[in-house]
Write a structure and sequence with these properties.
- Helix content is 39%, strand content 21%.
- The chain has 153 residues and is an alpha+beta fold.
- The strands form 3 sheets. The chain has a 3-stranded antiparallel sheet. A two-stranded antiparallel sheet has the order 1-7. Strands 2-6 form a two-stranded antiparallel ribbon.
- β3 and β4 (66-73) form a beta hairpin.
- α1 (15-33) crosses α3 and α2 packs across α3.
- The protein is globular and about 45 Å long.
- The N and C termini lie far apart (32 Å).
């Protein structure tokens, strides 16, 4: 059966998208949390579900494309990164505070990528991050074809 096929004209087939999203994560984590991210090979998947507890989704819209970007986080790793970013222990934070933290991280990741992509003509608009538990991702998002860009810290 193999991996799902992506239309070659799909915006995510443009290496600039994947590269700039990855760089947004790498640069943000390195600068704000003194943490290195290591990426694995991106892949396409239909009905993909996150293996982690926390997710954030953002709408990615321009005149030619509407879609979403999702970031997924292991709760313990997210707490460690948030602690490094804000300079205080977040291991005892409430779920609401942790979701707020991963929402802010995703906003920074996307903002860094968006700035670079807009400089080369993508014209992406601002998007409000929507953090949630992975089990609560809207079905319409999890059933679509996804380009997954895995990374570890």
């Amino acid at each position: 059966m193999g991996a799902p096929k992506i239309d070659p004209k799909h915006p995510f087939m443009d290496g600039a998208i994947v590269t700039n999203l990855a760089n947004g994560v790498v640069e943000t984590l390195r600068m704000m949390a003194e943490t290195d991210a290591i990426f694995s090979k991106p892949f396409a998947e239909t009905n993909w579900s996150s293996p982690t507890e926390l997710s954030v989704y953002l709408s990615v819209n321009n005149q030619n494309y509407k879609g979403q970007i999702l970031f997924h986080f292991n709760k313990n790793v997210a707490c460690q990164i948030i602690s490094r970013m804000v300079g205080e222990d977040s291991t005892l934070a409430s779920d609401e505070e942790i979701l707020d933290g991963v929402g802010e991280m995703a906003n920074i990741f996307y903002g860094a990528a968006k700035a670079k992509l807009n400089m080369i003509g993508f014209n992406l608009v601002t998007s409000i991050p929507k953090p949630c538990f992975a089990k609560n991702i809207p079905k319409r998002l999890s059933q679509n074809l996804s380009v997954v860009i895995p990374f570890t810290v």
